Amino acid sequence: MVLKKRSGRIFSKRLRFLNIVKEHMNTVNVRKVEIGKGIPKICVPVVGITRDDIIDAACKAKETADLVEWRADWYEDVLDFKKTEKMMEELRETLGDIPLLFTFRTLKEGGEKEIEKSVYVKLNEMAVKTGFADLVDAEAFTGTDEVNTIVETAHLYGVKVIASNHDFQKTPPKEEIVSRLCFMQECGADIVKIAVMPQSKKDVLTLLLATEEMVREHAKCPVVTMSMSEVGVVSRICGEAFGSALTFGAVKKASAPGQLGAEELRMVLKILHDV
Questions:
Q1: Residue 216 lies in a domain
Q2: What gap in Å lies between CA 150 and CA 125, rounded to an integer?
Q3: CATH number of 258's domain
Q4: Is residue 20's pLDDT more than 80?
Q5: How high is the pLDDT of residue 131?
Q6: CA-to-CA distance for 107 and 166, rounded, in angstroms?
Q7: CB–CB of 189/156 below 8 Å?
Q8: For a tag site, which of 40, 47, 69, 77 has the least CB within 10 Å?
Q9: Of the residues 22, 166, 174, 252, which is catalytic?
Q10: How many domains does the chain have?
Q11: 36 belongs to a structural domain
Q12: CA 54 to chain centroid
């Protein structure tokens, strides 16, 4: 009992310290959601091949999500821009006032389809210009010109940008993780995100320490980090303690290894917040 109380006090002090740090960091407001303040927000990915699959998943997602990510790379007609725009319109109607994140995850970063850089840029620009997306995901290492184009277009239309990087092979050293996040921030992104694959429990600690250092010393915007697979599950629930502002939870089908169910995730996040 003494140990439990002591652990609770340590966790609470850690949260208070990070809240002080976050006062100097810009939060991101999307509709009624403020990302970067308080309990990490839950983003529920919608993955589906057909129109019916996607809408069915969106209906389930909106019951528990703070925001919804449409993984457009799963959609069978994603490269038909007219059909994709229509799909986004239906998603917007289905989700109501829940923020929508448009993501085409490329094959090299764990997605379902390969795509040429020029088409990737045009697809994201189209998504931005529809007015149906509140945020877009731009893979930070696609190319400097390509990322700059997406960021500039998004901001011109009032859409926020999550710059992202996914390493499905390894967990880079702490300094490299921090360096990548800083680079994304310098690209003009509103939120920076990195997901890495642990080969050991020590790798999970590396990711958490990199997150803490980034938030404490460098962050001007919300930071999102996660260690994938079952080994890294703890990183998806302790974001408030280390500084990660957003976590991903599944409702129907997980979009990445180690994702927890959204309802269970919300319950755990609240327990940790209330300690």
A1: no
A2: 6
A3: 3.20.20.70
A4: no
A5: 97
A6: 11
A7: no
A8: 77
A9: 166
A10: 1
A11: yes
A12: 19
Instruction: Identify each DSSP E strand in the chain by its residue range.
Output: 28-30, 33-35, 41-46, 67-71, 100-103, 135-139, 160-167, 191-196, 223-227, 246-250, 260-261
Integer Cα distance of 249 and 267 in angstroms: 12
Distance CA 214, CA 209 (A): 9
Residue 119 sits in which domain range? Answer: 25-161+236-274
Task: With beta carbons less than 8 A apart as the criterion, state whether 117 and 106 touch.
Answer: no
Q: Which of 41, 62, 193, 252 is catalytic?
A: 193
Tell me the one-letter amino acid at 220: K
Is residue 71 assigned to a domain? yes
Classify residue 204: in a domain, yes or no.
no
pLDDT given at position 251: 84
The token pair that represents 228 in the structure block: 């994938």
The phi and psi torsions of 102 (rounded to 5 degrees) equal -95, 125
List the structure tokens of 49.
């091949």
Q: 247 forms bridges with which residues in the sheet?
A: 42
**pLDDT (tens digit per residue) in 88-124:** 999 999 999 999 999 999 999 999 999 999 999 999 9
Active site residue 193: yes
Active site residue 24: no
Helices (H) and strands (E) in the chain, counts: 9, 11
Strands (E), 131-222: 135-139, 160-167, 191-196
The identity of residue 124, as a single letter, is N
> Would you call 138 helix, strand, or coil by DSSP?
strand
